[in-house]
Amino acid sequence: MSARGLVKTYPLPSGEVTALGGIDLDVTAGEFVAVVGRSGSGKTTLLNLLAGIDRPTTGEIVVAGTSVHELRGSRLAAWRGRTIGLVFQFFQLLPTLTVAENVMLPMDLCATVPARQRRSRADGLLEQVGILDQAGKLPSALSGGQQQRAAIARALANEPPVLMADEPTGNLDSATSDSVLDLFAQLAADGRTVLMVTHERDVSRHATRHITLGDGLMAGDTAGGNLPEGMLP
Ligand SMILES: Nc1ncnc2c1ncn2[C@@H]1O[C@H](COP(=O)(O)OP(=O)(O)OP(=O)(O)O)[C@@H](O)[C@H]1O
Which end of the chain is more exposed for a tag (fewer CB within 10 A), N or C? Predict the structure, then answer.
């Protein structure tokens, strides 16, 4: 995954806000990258651009051989559904569907898996994240950690090469956070690219690389699990 000259500005009545001022980035398969930085430094904007949720004002993004900045509308949505697994702070599970049905939803939307294989694939993913015994329950019957595991299984439904997570442990206690982060580390070790936005030092130490943003620019790029002092707010 690479980005070149990534700029994102928002026009406001009071003037233009520059969320990203020109980011160059290369991330390879198997990396577990934590994007860190102060509030307002551009972390979520960067993740949204790389995931194809939002489009850059200028600049280029290439993910798994596709020039994402050239895609629009339904082609962008189809690419995103196949390529990017998304995990959010508040899980975003659909409350009226069972856990297994939530996991099958991306398969239904993208038709990447034949209909008769979707349930067994969902069960396999739920087993991988350790909650197969919760498959038939509604999300409200699960703990926060179990709900985030269900959301990770759903993110993996279409076998995306890239997993992106915005503050995935922001709503979990520290022991539960650790187990979810171990799961991300395992998914990266299996060859996926994992990119996580976080502002918590304890969370970011699970990553193998830290990208620090400051005022929309790259302020640091360090390998290893320990973020140098002063690199987090
Ligand atoms: N839709 C928008 N319209 C206008 N300004 C925006 C919009 N989205 C983000 N911004 C601005 O862009 C800058 C970067 O925001 P962003 O949410 O990417 O930062 P962040 O590092 O993720 O912050 P936080 O840690 O608080 O979530 C901020 O100044 C923010 O106010």
Answer: C
